[in-house]
């Protein structure tokens, strides 16, 4: 593994104020803060690392439940390179002007808010604990705190969804000064409250695809350029950390359920927060990062799959797959100049079906 290879560290904060009805992330609800014993366990693991990261990402869970002094200690222990991107995920109702100023002073460069919708009835249905007005307020505080990068998440194809709900949510994020927007289709995952008790009015697959294509069009019109299936940014404001994942670069995840890929070897931590705190569980090897992983990740990006790079990783398309790829181009699902094969927004909607043929 070369030191010149970009390297990112992900710190998982598995605590939330309440459990959202659609969420299958590893997190414990009911938290008012992050136990110091958990922060100490992260510090213990970070002390084993000697490689300075280009990016540091606090994900969750709800990392904004950390107090700024805890975040500062973790940033210091991670020892990021000068100019590193340091992201912290937040929910609008767990921040105050003081905590946001504290996170900024601790070195956080990028604050990412789970806004999801500008419709209060929708937010209640999702089990979110903030309101649209609260989200606008949090974005204003983030601007005042001086974050160079402010990000907002939108969920698409929610129950009883309309393009007007999307427009209101986009306006909230745009007017709030977001430099980056992630727009995700709702997926009802096993183990969630929505899976056990599906909400009424869920759009079908065709309607969800139409909501996605509408969102891509409106985000582009508002100056947010798509660079990944679900990610859009003002030019120059793309998220550097997640690009490490999609480019199969090195990243080390720390905390229960966190995943890593370093030197093409994938590892994960068991989802056992008490074992992590006690130091009785260790990272497990998951397997190697293969050419198929590279294909899967690169086709998420608007920049697409560079076929010579894919071949250098041991991948090769069969003659039948090449015929299929030309058919994708013919149907408007892809663009292929002989060297780079990339999906159009219409192709991204059917990405899973395309991947089935190519893998
Ligand atoms: S969606 Fe975010 S805030 Fe809601 S339970 Fe999941 S991790 Fe916590």
UniProtKB/TrEMBL annotation:
Presence of the UniProt keyword NAD in the record: no
Leader sequence residues: none
UniProt family annotation: Belongs to the anaerobic coproporphyrinogen-III oxidase family. HemW subfamily.
Domain Radical SAM core: residue ranges: 1-225
InterPro entries assigned to the protein according to its UniProt record, in alphabetical order: Aldolase_TIM, Coproporphyrinogen-III_oxidase, Elp3/MiaA/NifB-like_rSAM, HemW-like, rSAM, rSAM_sf
Species in which this protein is naturally found: Gemmiger formicilis
Task performed by this protein: Probably acts as a heme chaperone, transferring heme to an unknown acceptor. Binds one molecule of heme per monomer, possibly covalently. Binds 1 [4Fe-4S] cluster. The cluster is coordinated with 3 cysteines and an exchangeable S-adenosyl-L-methionine.
Protein name: Heme chaperone HemW
GO cellular component: cytoplasm
Positions in coiled-coil regions: none
Record GO terms (molecular function): 4 iron, 4 sulfur cluster binding; coproporphyrinogen oxidase activity; metal ion binding
């Amino acid at each position: 593994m070369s030191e010149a290879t970009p390297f990112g560290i992900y710190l998982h904060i598995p605590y939330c104020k309440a459990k959202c009805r659609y969420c299958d992330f590893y997190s414990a609800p009911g938290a008012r803060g992050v136990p110091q014993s958990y922060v100490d366990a992260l510090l213990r693991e970070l002390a084993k690392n000697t490689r300075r990261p280009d990016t540091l990402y606090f994900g969750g869970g709800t990392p904004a439940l950390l107090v700024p002094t805890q975040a500062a200690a973790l940033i210091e222990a991670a020892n990021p390179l000068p100019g590193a991107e340091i992201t912290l995920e937040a929910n609008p109702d767990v921040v105050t002007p003081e905590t946001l100023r504290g996170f900024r002073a601790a070195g956080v460069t990028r604050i990412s808010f789970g806004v999801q919708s500008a419709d209060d009835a929708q937010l209640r249905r999702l089990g979110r604990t903030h309101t649209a007005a609260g989200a606008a307020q949090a974005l204003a505080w983030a601007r005042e705190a001086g974050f160079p990068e402010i990000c907002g998440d939108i969920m698409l194809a929610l129950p009883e969804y309309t393009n007007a709900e999307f427009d209101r949510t986009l306006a909230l994020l745009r007017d709030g000064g977001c430099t980056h927007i992630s727009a995700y289709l709702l997926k009802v995952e096993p183990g969630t409250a929505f899976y056990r008790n599906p909400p009424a009015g869920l759009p079908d697959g065709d309607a969800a695809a139409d909501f996605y294509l509408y969102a891509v069009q409106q985000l582009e019109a508002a100056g947010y350029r798509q660079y990944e299936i679900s990610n859009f940014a003002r030019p120059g404001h793309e998220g550097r950390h997640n690009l490490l994942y999609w480019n199969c670069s090195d990243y080390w995840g720390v905390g229960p359920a966190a995943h890593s890929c370093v030197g093409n070897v994938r590892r994960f931590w068991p989802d056992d927060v008490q074992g992590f705190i006690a130091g009785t569980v260790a990272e497990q090897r998951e397997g190697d990062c293969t050419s198929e992983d590279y294909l899967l990740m690169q086709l998420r990006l608007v920049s697409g799959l560079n076929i010579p790079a894919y071949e250098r990783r041991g991948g090769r398309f069969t003659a039948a797959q090449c015929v299929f790829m030309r058919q994708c181009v013919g149907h408007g699902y892809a663009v292929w100049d002989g060297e780079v094969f990339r999906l159009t927004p219409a192709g991204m909607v059917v990405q899973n079906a395309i991947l089935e043929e190519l893998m």
